[in-house]
Amino acid sequence: MMEIRYWMKQVRAVSLVVAVAAMQWGVAAGADEGRGPNVILIMSDDQGWGDVGFNGNDEIKTPQLDQMAENGVRFDRFYASSPLCSPTRGSCLTGRFPFRFGILAAHTGGMRVGEITVAEMLKDEGYATGFFGKWHVGWIEPDQPGSRGFYSPPSHHGFDEYFATTSAVPTWDPCVTPDGWSKWGAEPGEPWKGGAPYLQDGVPVTENVAGDDSRVIMDRVIPFIEKNRNGRFLATVWFHAPHEPVVAGEEYKKLYPKAGETRKNYYGCITAMDEQIGRLRAKLRELKIERETVVFFCSDNGPADPMVKKGVASAGGFKGHKHTMYEGGLLVPACVEWPGMLKPGGKTMVRCSTVDFFPTIANLTGYEFRSKDKRPIDGIDLMPVAKGEVDERGKDLFFGYRRLVQGTDGMSIIRGDMKLLREAKPSGRLRLYDLSRDPFEKKDLASELPERLAELEKAMLDIDRSCQLSRDGLDYRY
Predict the structure, then answer these.
(1) Considering its fold, how many domains does the chain have in total?
(2) DSSP H or E run through 448
(3) Partners of 297 in the beta sheet?
(4) Residue 334 maps to a domain
C-alpha cells in the first residue's frame, strides 16, 4: 500500500503529465480523433552529446542530422535512462525505468513478454511494425543460448518483421572481424559471431551484408516503408554506429584527411550513418508522407570511455562517459522532426528522456491500457515540450546501472535542477549537484546541503523499491 500511495501522490502532483497519468491508471489518454502519425524511432550507439553538428561539433560531418534538428526541435537536455545500451533500449520500448523490467546492465537479461512495448501498442492500433538494427534486449537466435541473457527476439514484442543482430557488429563489413581487433575472442579476418550476425525474421542473412553497416540496415528499412506507405507504420531503426568495433569505409575516411586513423574511423562511421538518415528523410519526401510521419533521433548513452580518453569522442564538455552516472554518461544528442506539426528551429532545455517515447506515442495515437494491463509509466508526453507549451518536466528522472557481482551499483535522480547520484563504482559515494548553476558537475554540494541530499536519497531509494516490486511481479499478470 505504501508503494501505491507513493505513485498516486506522484500522479496528483504533476499537472504536466495528466494525460500520461490517466493512461497509467487505465483512463483515456485524450488524443485527437483520427489516425495517428507514422512513427520512426532512430537511435545511434555510444554517440556522445558532443558528437553531432547540431550540438556544436564543427569537425564531424552530420549535415542530415543537423538539418533534421533545424527543421524540427532540438532537445538540449535529453537523457538516456541508463549510461549503457541494453537498459536504455528497453526504456525506449516500454516508457519505464530499466530497473522496472529487470535489464540492469548489458547482457544481463532480456525483455520480458509481460512488458507492453510501443510496437505492441501500435500493433493494437492497426500499425505495421518493423525493427531494424541492434536489438540487445534478448537473444535473437533460439539455438544460441547465452550465459547472461535469454531468447527474446523482436517478434516476441510486437514487431511484425525484423532485421536484427543480438548485439554489436563492426560498423564496416559487419560479418567480418576487422583488422587490429583483438577483443571478445575474435581474430582479424575471421567471421564475426559465426559470419551471419543478422537475422531476418529468424533466418540468418548472407546477402547484401557487406560494406557500411548503416547502409545495410537502411536497405531493409526503405522497402518496409514503401510497402506500408498507404497505411500506418512504426519503424524502429537502431544503428550500431559508432559502437566498437568502429570502422569506416575509405570513402568516409577520406572526408577527414587531417585526422588520425582512430578519428577517421569514428567520424567516418558517424557520417556514414548520417548519410543513411538523409536517405530515409528523402524517401519520406519522395513518398509524400513526411507530414504524416514523426521522426525521433537520440543516442543510447554517452560516448565510450576509451574514445573519450583518446580525445576522439565528445560528451560536449559534460563530466563522465558511458558507464558513469554523471551527465556525460547520460546526456545524449536528440531531436524530433515532424513537418507541418512542429515549428522549425525549435529547441528546449526541458529535461527529457528515452522513457518519454512510449507515452508520447500513446497520446498521439489515442492508446489506452486495458484495466488488466495497468502499470506505472515513468515518462511524459514530449509533444507539449517540443511545441514550447511547457518549460519544466514536473516529474522525477531516475537512472540506474547495476552489476553487483562486479561491485557496480550506480543510481541517480534528477528533481527539478537538483541531481543526486551514487557513483557506479568503486566508492559508491553520494554526490549532489545543482545543474542549473553547475551543468558540468564541478561542485559537489553533498556536504553543504545535507537536508536536500537526504530528501533526494529517500526519493531515489523509494523509486528503486517501487521498481523492484515491478520486476518482482507487481505489474505482471499470473
Answers:
(1) 1
(2) none
(3) 42, 335
(4) yes
Overall pTM > 0.90: yes
Q: Is 175 part of any domain? A: yes
**Full DSSP string of 137-168:** SSBS-TTS--TTB-B--GGGGT-SEEEEESS-
pLDDT of residue 369: 81
What's residue 148's pLDDT?
72
The region that residue 158 occupies, defined by phi over 0 for left and psi between -120 and 50 for alpha, beta otherwise, is: left
- The domain that holds 197 is classified in CATH as 3.40.720.10
CA neighbours closer than 13 Å in the CB half-sphere of residue 16: 24
Residue ranges of the chain with per-residue pLDDT less than 50: 1-33
Host domain of residue 85: 33-386
| Side-chain-facing half-sphere of 288: CA atoms under 13 Å | 1
Kindly list the distances between the CA atom of residue 48 and the CA atoms of 248, 274, 322, in Å, as whole numbers in the listed order.
Answer: 18, 14, 9
The reply to whether 122 falls in a domain is yes
Which grid coordinates belong to 109?
537479461
What is the DSSP secondary-structure string of 235-275? EEEE--TTSSS----HHHHTT-TTS-HHHHHHHHHHHHHHH
**Is the residue at 437 inside a domain?**
no
**pLDDT at position 372:** 75
